[in-house]
Amino acid sequence: MELRVMFPSTLIIRLHIQLVLAMSVIANQPRCRTTCSNHSIRFPFGIDNGCGSPHLPMICVNDSILQIVVDSKPFFVDEIDYTHSTLLLRDPSMSNCRSVNSNSAGFDLNLDGTGLTLRQGSTVLLLNCLSFAQEINFLNDQYDCHNPTCLAFLGSCHTNELLTSCCRVTYPHNRINLFPMQCMSYTSIYSPENPIFNPPSWSYGIEVQWSLPSETNDACNKCEARNGICGFNVEEPNHPFMCICESSLGCKDCILGSCTGRRIRKLIVGFSLAGTLMLSACAILVLFLRHRNRFKKLRYGLSTDILHYGEIEDKHTGMELAHVLATTTGPLPLTIFSYKELEHATAAFSETQMIGDGAYGMVYKAKFYDGRVLAVKRLNHQHHRQLQQFYNEIRILSQLRHPNLVQLEGFCLQGRNLLLVYEYICNGTVEDHLHGEDGIRAARLPWEKRLNIACDVADALAYLHFSISPPIYHRDVKSSNILLDQHMKAKVADFGLSRLVPVDATHVSTGPQGTPGYVDPEYHECYQVSDKSDVYSFGVVLLEMLTGKRAVDLNRPRNEINLSAYAIAKIQGNALHEILDPRIFSAGRQRQAATQVANLAFSCVALPREARPTMKEVAAQLHLIRSAPFKTP
């Protein structure tokens, strides 16, 4: 016998009215949360939109963990000192002596342009660096591998046999980079009042300092004196400061007395919410019980990748699926956008807003009411794999945070509309720059920038292969999936074909997918993809940047259609100079570095795949090539 609970219509109306009244009061409250765990959150930081500097966004995870995003990477915030304008940060990938292992890998951290600077209280130690790289870098005195602090650290960690070496960064810096010396990880010791030779007393963290213009500090002091809350107005970049007042959100200066009465309003909100919650508790409980089994089935379908789009459309609403997606993905917060919101932000998906297209959908530039500019990918309705691509990209990107990976901001699922929302990368793709019709962009992509792009992409792929558990194979590395920001920094995109790899697995069997010219030839023989499949694709990208030629071009002679085969023949015949891009390698400039990169690309596309280097080895070699001075005739 099924138990049904019926609510009188008057009760439903009463619930609705009280909710509207309560929410109308809440709407007049300042939007800024001021605490997270035991941290006080105030200017210039904020958790909510508009409440803090957009350059230093903070995230409060479950009201217990405070993080700040610096250089597109999350750090744990251990301390905030508003008196001295300092933060004590902890890198989730940072090692102490207990966590160092042979497979650990950290991040390249660059504070330039973030408004933060490293303080002298932080001692940065690079761990498990390769010996030959140490010898090379001794020449420029940037690293000290016999520093007393390093010796003390190694001595305190003598029980960890996987910790083999330590080098202290000695030069004035605002950047932590593991790759020049091919180091596995790093740590930063912060102990301003503790003896340097007493490792048990050390604290691990990175101390940074923030700074603001004096006029901004003065405006904030004036705002707080009048019971306002200091915030940022992202819609006015020339006048970003905003005083958030209870009666007039967005004013630059609260009128004296206009930000009073907050306690009375809080009492009204409290009583309204209490009554509303009591009346609606039964309704929520009944709805929860009715839909629990339905959500379980939907969650199971998502987690096992056996979804069929038609079945979902018939049995479940888009909003239900959207919320299940948000709870079955990784730890990074995602926003569920409405279709109407995205339609408005893209001018009804106007062709004038379209910035890219492909087999799986089109990408649009979207400008939102709060001033944010994002990119929206609208998946193709007719493609039979669209839902798998949609969920796969959400599942993968929701657990990744790396400066050289495109960040997923959120998604939309309403009816048959599947949309993914990313950070907006303004400078197009590497393919656009290399193969544009007028050739002007390629001329603006000199060798130094191409080498920087190669290092960025290699770092991202090494992160996917070695810093994520389980590792991730991208499976569609190509020049059109490498985006460039305003500083020509590369970001890898399009994870629709990517695969999470079971722990201890050396390869994954899949059906034929990928882009011709970039796909590992052995993949067509055994349909097994491994990390070396990404290495092969990256090798083709290196050849593209060296030659300026497309990976596949049917307009070329038959023996030159496939760039990989064509370039290998030239390299083996000592005729590399015949295929180097004349737009950047004229008159023999930088030929030595180009030859080194060509040899590396040759090893990346080697057969069999076991002969190829790992992406970690490729990244390390590229950084060494970049750090060496270019020799010109």
How would you concisely characterize the structure shown here?
With 633 residues, this protein is of the alpha+beta class. Helix 14 (531-547) runs antiparallel to helix 16 (591-604) and helix 16 (591-604) runs antiparallel to helix 17 (615-627).
Structure in words:
The chain crosses the membrane at residues 267-289. This is Protein kinase domain-containing protein. Residues 1-22 form the signal peptide. Keywords: ATP-binding, Glycoprotein, Kinase, Membrane, Nucleotide-binding, Serine/threonine-protein kinase, Signal, Transferase, Transmembrane, Transmembrane helix. The protein is an alpha+beta fold and 633 residues long. It folds into three domains: 71-210, no CATH class; 305-423, Phosphorylase Kinase, domain 1 (2-Layer Sandwich); 432-627, Transferase(Phosphotransferase) domain 1 (Transferase(Phosphotransferase), domain 1, Orthogonal Bundle), CATH 1.10.510.10. Helix content is 34%, strand content 19%. The protein contains 17 helices and 29 strands. The strands form nine sheets. The chain has a six-stranded antiparallel beta sheet with strand order 3-4-5-6-15-8, with no helix packed on it. A six-stranded mixed beta sheet has the order 18-22-23-21-20-19, sandwiched between helices. A hairpin with a 5-residue loop joins β25 (482-484) and β26. Mean pLDDT is 73; it is low at 1-30, 101-106, 248-252, 255-264, 293-320 and 501-512.
